[in-house]
Design goal:
- This protein is α+β, with helices and mostly antiparallel strands and 884 residues long.
- It has 25 helices and 23 strands.
- The strands form 4 sheets. A 6-stranded mixed barrel has the order 4-5-21-18-20-19. Strands 6, 8, 9, 11, 14 and 17 form a 6-stranded antiparallel sheet that branches.
- A hairpin with a 2-residue loop joins strand 19 and strand 20.
Length: 884
Amino acid sequence: DVKDSYNEFWNGDPSIILDPDPPMMFGGRERPIVLFTDIDSFINGIESSNAGLPIKYQKFFHVDTNKILSNSTKNILNDLRDFKNEISTKIPRSNVFVSIIPTIERVENKILFLKLPMYIIGSFSIVFVLFYVFLISKIIYNKRTIEISVFLSRGLSFRQLFNISLFESFFIVFIPGIIGTFIAYHLLIISSNFSFFHSINNGENLYINLNLKIYFYVFLMNIIVLLVLLLPLFEKIFSKISINVSTQIYSTSKSFFHKFFIDYLLLLLFVVFIWELVTKGIIYNDLDGNLSIDIAILMAPVMFLLGVLLIIIRVFPLIINLFYYLSKHTSNTGIFLAFVRLRRNFNWYSLSLLLTIFIVSLAIMLGGLTSTLNRSSIEKVLYDIPSDLRLIIRESISQDDILTLKNIDGTNYVSSAFRETGIIGTTQQGPNFTLLGLDTQNIDHFIWFREDFSKLSKTKLFEKITKPTDPLPITIPNGATHLSAISKQQPYVKDHFFWIILEDSKNRKVTVTLGQIESEWTEKLGEIPTHLEPPIEIVSLQTYMPVSGDTGTPTEWYIDQVKAVGLNQENNLIDFEGENYWSTIPTSNGLDDKINIIVDNQNNFAKVDLDIGTVVGVRGIYRNSTGKPIPIAVSKNYLELTENDIGDYDVIQVYGGFVPVEIVAILKNFPTLDSSDQPFIIIDINSLLDFLEFRGMVNISENEFFIDIDERKKAEVKNEINSLFMSSTIKDADENLNQTLVDPITILGWEVTYYLAISLSILTLILSFYSYFFASYNNNKKDAFILKSIGISRKSFILSLIFENIFLLFFGVIIGIVTGHYSAKFSISGINYFYDGNLPLPPIIFQWNFIPLLIFLFFIIIINISSIYIIYKKFVYDRVELIK
């Protein structure tokens, strides 16, 4: 019986393990390999002879997926962590691995990043819907103004009037709220059949958990809608009270602060919300280390929008008054009439203006936020893999391997790179930085680089740090056996020797010593080693003292007439005439040494000022085509750390060697580098490796490659690279992008939110504008009749209608675009973590997307044109209606 743990199938009998039959001493069968065993039977068999001794074993637990689905993620993680801590506490020396915890945390972070745009867009959509409710309620209570006055005149109290409105609103709000919950439930079930959900639910219905929290939110939303519905009633009631009170109290003028102190308080509240958003962010780490959304700070973008609307309500009447006085000087009756109507009844026309601002702001939020997050998720991949392939070498390689890599069929460009951690300055206590050496000759053709990373373009940046052309080599002629030079030092330093550094065709470096440097001009001779293979070059002129660090003796070293001497030949190799291709070697005291070419009686010679710094006693000069240090680009925090600026020289340490550098460019960010961790430097790899090789560090080579390939041959290229570098890592940009773009929990969620919000907004937009124009038609019947009776022409009337709506629409669109843009930027600035729990890198930048705005404007224009036409037709042609 397989289900019986003591059955022979499970080796339930411990004797099979402990006492194999026949005995092994007589050549019986070998001890069995136990694949499956019941832990109780195994322990029972050995506990008698091993009592008190520790035993190592593993126990596997399987979770109940149904219980996980029915519980909240926070409770699941807390229970699993408590279980882990309890086992670790009660069982000494135990290790507990709960693999589901990091999985849940990873999925939860992705869901959180999905929720973020949903919450932000949802908050705007809810406020938009509430504004529509307020608009309808205001229209209704404007219609009932006379009715309310009659009730109050007949002795009905404010409380009774409020109770009547509350009872009416209860049926309008709560019953649809309950029905809407079940409609939403069934809509979610229907949406399970949409193709874009198949990657999540495998074609099955989505699991929908309508817990008590959902019903609480529905109830809370109903309360908010109820209060918004009653808001115009409060306005009517309190206006009556204020009129009554004002008749009993003597008239007095109020200060500006007294009139608008509520505005001040609200604006202060909005500023506090925005400040909290910018400084703290929407996402934070809770006490358990999980990422969470701060719902209060999440409302900051909406608060910003409401603050702008509050300012518009107070400021826009002044703008209308300005245009009104300007329109007095125009001869166009329609334009003047439009501003008269706007000025006289701004409270009513402000509804159209605020409605337009709401719609346009929401459109910018919809387009900008989702597009920005989508772009950011793509750029996050490109920042880590800025080329088709990024090859990270984890083994020693040779130049032949690099040549083989570059010759693989299907590779367009192969750009070598060198990544290492270095130290700023000449001491071991200096701050660390990340060094990235790049082959600047071709990498600008294909590497991904965003314009805001630097003030310079990608091409200009790499041009500035590209290694300059090497100077012509100083080659020793064949047949030369010795080198000679004329030199002196002032003041005289004992045990100070003159060295000439040579390099042969096999990159071997040797030293030719010319002995002690004298106090007067003296020619010294040194023998060239015979094992060197031509061509042999002079790469450096140095001095040596048996000291180290900053213990060198300062002096002035003079050099001239370096010659190659052989049998019946003497060739002048260095006379310091013409261009000066020499730079001083950086020492433990930085770039303290200086070289100058002195002209004396038409004879040039070099003067090298040697300070106290040395490199294990060595000082001197080396061949350099520019006479300057190696050009580098640095991160902004490098400058802040070193207090340097563009054009300044510095010394860095790489592999313990001093490298002279000149800052030529500043970068905010650069692909694969994180300046928040530590400063970084970009340098030409050839300049770096050549200098390190010159300083004797010969075992340093490229450790990364950025590769641009033919997409049609990607599989073959990757296979060949894997076979060539078996211990290395290949990062594929397209694979990572595909994983990001098809992630059903992030990008798909944004798209669903995007389309749902657009659909809801269009529906609310249509209802809001048509409701507004319908109410406008009813409210302005009497005005139209008066205008008609005093002889206003049809042309002037229709022009006034068109102009007043265009005026409101124009300002509403402009203000809405600006407000929506900054609301979206505030939302984006508050996203201080990405879906993997790390800070967003590269920094998120706003991505404009005008598609929702164009869609909304299309509907707004159609509604405005159709409504104006209907109003015009009613007011002009329907005389019977006007007379009534």
